[in-house]
């Protein structure tokens, strides 16, 4: 539920005012004419809709009881036939015409309102998505995927629900207004007396909404809790089962469900009270109206109620009064409810729409002449973190060289490469490409020249061909195959039943981790970037694949500057330079041989990796012991999983 997420994270800026009004102003105005037709049509349709009750009352008096002449408000007497047969035919004609006109107007209004509403929502949805994907990475770091998705899913459909209900609300209000206008033409004082009904129901509704509001919040909260509980249990089902903890999960779900049940009961109880009291008001008004009407009809009106009342007029009044109850109740229950929802949702939508976004186009065009990358005394801390993740990072990647970045998990290796792409910006110092500070470059031009294969490459739902071709507009098959060969993916792809047309499943789940990475490398290479960044690109692959990729990297690196975050030190053994990062600082750099000779952190990591644990320095061992899980670290390091 949208409400279960943290709404304070989505505050609409102050200048916006009421966010719902803001959205309506901005997104409904292109369809002004349609909305106008819808509103006028809906309101006008209420006139013919109220006519039958009026006509039936008049016909009853004039034709069946012969107690009064046939006369209708707003209709000149000359138009009305004088014979009984004529009046019967006139009545039938009038009823049929009223129904037909009502039908036509309602249909038109419904159609126009429907299309206008859908177009408005479409615009809001697309703009909101556009604003979302345009946000800087920090925005996504601070939020859960489900939370961000709920802005697009729940919040936009809440607006839809409100749009629907707003039309209903308008219908109810005009329906009541038209009925009162007609009643006032027949018997103004009795109509005034009957105002008790909408006013009384309105007051009840107000009482109900103020009481139910806080309880609703509680219910939504517990719905959120149940969902989170269920998601956790089902997502972690393998773990649940492996520990045979199904009972515990059941108990936890039962607790959440019990809380939901109790809170929901409070809502149902309030709703029942409201339903029954409004039903009573309506029913007793009906009885009261009949009693007063019959009394006036039989005995003449007391002075305060003015003139007498015919049986037909009483019937018309009774029919109208009965038709108020449902709509007013619904107005109170549904329309107000959906207004509250829509208000909360529009706040979140406006917060996304109206805040600064990182413009892909602003900034200079990057001009890659040689491909020299330089990090110059870079300090950086994530906004969402209190700590500084990089301190005084300096190194240079010469044109066409391969630079390996190694170090323990969490040292800041990925962060270093993210600054190159301007996913984040350095707090101090500069990252430059051929002397151009990346923070001056437009994100789009940076990303056109730089290829990136992330730690956990994302494959989109679709075929392998589509996934490799993702980065360019109309890739031809030869280009795709060429890129796949370079990435060492061609062989396994052609071995699959459908080759390049194999569906990869959601997030590429039908492929192994190594296969996914090779496809991601092919995707990056297809753009022929001048600079390539591989982030732990070889962490998931077997030795044979690793060798293939390493060959590819070696082959590629000659042509383009490559930064490779290495998981296994052997991958970057041949690198021109290896930058060793520890706790956000560059602690050593040089070639493999130079670093071994230095006998520092790299040398220790290398010894662990090749299984020469006896030779590991005492300092390294002490440090490993000081970490949270020393033995695991060492063991995994021995397995060749140094930095995990
Ligand atoms: P490495 O790639 O060396 O494993 P990272 O660059 O991923 O390390 O992370 C460096 C540090 O920054 C870690 O302490 C990590 O927890 C933190 N970090 C990484 N990404 C974010 C983020 N988006 N927001 C806040 N902290 C982060």
TrEMBL record:
<feature type="transmembrane region" description="Helical">
    <location>
        <begin position="176"/>
        <end position="204"/>
    </location>
</feature>
<dbReference type="Pfam" id="PF00664">
    <property type="entry name" value="ABC_membrane"/>
</dbReference>
<feature type="domain" description="ABC transporter">
    <location>
        <begin position="373"/>
        <end position="608"/>
    </location>
</feature>
<dbReference type="InterPro" id="IPR027417">
    <property type="entry name" value="P-loop_NTPase"/>
</dbReference>
<feature type="transmembrane region" description="Helical">
    <location>
        <begin position="88"/>
        <end position="109"/>
    </location>
</feature>
<dbReference type="GO" id="GO:0140359">
    <property type="term" value="F:ABC-type transporter activity"/>
</dbReference>
<protein>
    <submittedName>
        <fullName>ABC transporter ATP-binding protein</fullName>
    </submittedName>
</protein>
<dbReference type="InterPro" id="IPR036640">
    <property type="entry name" value="ABC1_TM_sf"/>
</dbReference>
<keyword id="KW-0812">Transmembrane</keyword>
<keyword id="KW-1133">Transmembrane helix</keyword>
<dbReference type="GO" id="GO:0005886">
    <property type="term" value="C:plasma membrane"/>
</dbReference>
<dbReference type="InterPro" id="IPR011527">
    <property type="entry name" value="ABC1_TM_dom"/>
</dbReference>
<feature type="domain" description="ABC transmembrane type-1">
    <location>
        <begin position="36"/>
        <end position="332"/>
    </location>
</feature>
<keyword id="KW-0067">ATP-binding</keyword>
<keyword id="KW-0472">Membrane</keyword>
<keyword id="KW-1003">Cell membrane</keyword>
<dbReference type="InterPro" id="IPR003593">
    <property type="entry name" value="AAA+_ATPase"/>
</dbReference>
<keyword id="KW-0547">Nucleotide-binding</keyword>
<dbReference type="Pfam" id="PF00005">
    <property type="entry name" value="ABC_tran"/>
</dbReference>
<dbReference type="InterPro" id="IPR039421">
    <property type="entry name" value="Type_1_exporter"/>
</dbReference>
<dbReference type="InterPro" id="IPR017871">
    <property type="entry name" value="ABC_transporter-like_CS"/>
</dbReference>
<dbReference type="InterPro" id="IPR003439">
    <property type="entry name" value="ABC_transporter-like_ATP-bd"/>
</dbReference>
<keyword id="KW-0813">Transport</keyword>
<dbReference type="GO" id="GO:0016887">
    <property type="term" value="F:ATP hydrolysis activity"/>
</dbReference>
<dbReference type="GO" id="GO:0005524">
    <property type="term" value="F:ATP binding"/>
</dbReference>
<feature type="transmembrane region" description="Helical">
    <location>
        <begin position="53"/>
        <end position="76"/>
    </location>
</feature>
């Amino acid at each position: 539920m949208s409400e279960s997420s943290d709404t304070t994270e989505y505050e609409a800026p102050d200048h916006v005012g009421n966010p719902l009004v803001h959205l309506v102003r901005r997104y409904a105005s292109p369809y002004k004419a349609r909305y106008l037709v819808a509103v006028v049509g809906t309101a006008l349709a209420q006139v013919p809709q109220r006519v039958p009750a009026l006509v039936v009352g008049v016909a009853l008096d004039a034709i069946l009881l012969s107690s009064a002449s046939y006369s209708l408000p707003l209709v000149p007497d000359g138009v009305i036939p004088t014979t009984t047969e004529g009046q019967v035919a006139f009545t039938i004609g009038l009823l049929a015409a009223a129904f037909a006109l009502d039908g036509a107007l309602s249909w038109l209004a419904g159609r126009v309102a429907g299309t206008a509403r859908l177009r408005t929502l479409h615009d809001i949805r697309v703009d909101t998505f556009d604003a979302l994907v345009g946000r800087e990475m920090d925005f996504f770091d601070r939020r859960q995927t489900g939370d961000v998705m709920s802005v697009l899913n729940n919040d936009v459909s809440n607006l839809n629900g409100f749009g629907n209900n707003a039309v209903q609300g308008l219908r109810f209000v005009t329906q009541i207004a038209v009925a009162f206008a007609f009643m006032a033409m027949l018997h103004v004082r009795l109509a005034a007396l009957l105002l008790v009904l909408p006013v009384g129901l309105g007051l009840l509704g107000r009482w109900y909404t103020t009481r139910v509001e806080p309880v609703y919040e509680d219910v939504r909260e517990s719905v959120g809790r149940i969902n989170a509980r269920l998601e956790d249990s089902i997502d972690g089902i393998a773990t649940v089962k492996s520990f045979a903890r199904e009972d515990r999960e059941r108990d936890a779900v039962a607790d959440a469900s019990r809380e939901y049940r109790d809170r929901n009961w409070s809502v149902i109880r309030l709703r029942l009270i409201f339903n029954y009291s409004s039903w009573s008001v309506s029913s007793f008004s009906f009885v009261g109206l009949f009693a007063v009407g019959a009394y006036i009809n039989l005995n003449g009106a007391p002075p305060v109620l003015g003139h007498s009342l015919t049986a037909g007029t009483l019937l018309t009044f009774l029919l109208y009064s009965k038709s108020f109850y449902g709509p007013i109740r619904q107005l109170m229950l549904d329309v107000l409810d959906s207004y509250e929802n829509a208000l909360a949702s529009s706040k979140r939508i406006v917060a996304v729409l109206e805040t600064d976004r990182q413009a892909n186009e602003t900034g200079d065009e990057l001009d890659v002449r040689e491909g020299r990358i330089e990090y110059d005394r870079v300090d950086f801390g994530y906004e969402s973190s209190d700590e500084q993740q990089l301190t005084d990072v300096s190194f240079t990647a010469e044109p066409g060289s391969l630079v390996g970045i190694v170090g323990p998990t969490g040292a800041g290796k990925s962060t270093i490469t993210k600054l190159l792409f301007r996913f984040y910006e350095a707090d101090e110092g500069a990252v430059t490409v051929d002397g151009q500070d990346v923070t001056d470059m437009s994100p789009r031009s940076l990303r056109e020249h730089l290829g990136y294969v992330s730690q956990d490459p994302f494959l989109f739902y679709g075929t392998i061909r589509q996934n490799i071709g993702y980065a360019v507009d109309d890739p031809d098959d030869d280009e795709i195959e060429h890129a796949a060969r370079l990435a060492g993916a061609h062989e396994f792809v052609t071995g699959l039943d459908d080759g390049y047309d194999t569906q990869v499943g959601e997030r590429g789940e039908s492929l192994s981790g190594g296969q996914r990475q090779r496809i991601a490398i092919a995707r990056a290479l297809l753009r022929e970037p001048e600079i390539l960044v591989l982030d732990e690109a070889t962490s998931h692959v077997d030795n044979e694949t690793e060798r293939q990729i390493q060959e590819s990297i070696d082959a590629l690196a000659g042509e383009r500057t490559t930064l490779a975050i290495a998981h296994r030190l052997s991958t970057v053994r041949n690198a021109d330079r290896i930058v060793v990062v520890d706790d956000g600082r560059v602690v050593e750099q040089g070639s493999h041989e130079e670093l071994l000779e230095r006998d520092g952190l790299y040398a220790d990591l290398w010894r662990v990796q090749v299984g020469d644990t006896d030779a590991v320095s005492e300092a390294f061992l002490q440090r490993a012991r000081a970490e949270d899980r020393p033995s695991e670290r060492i063991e995994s390091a021995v397995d060749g999983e140094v930095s995990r």
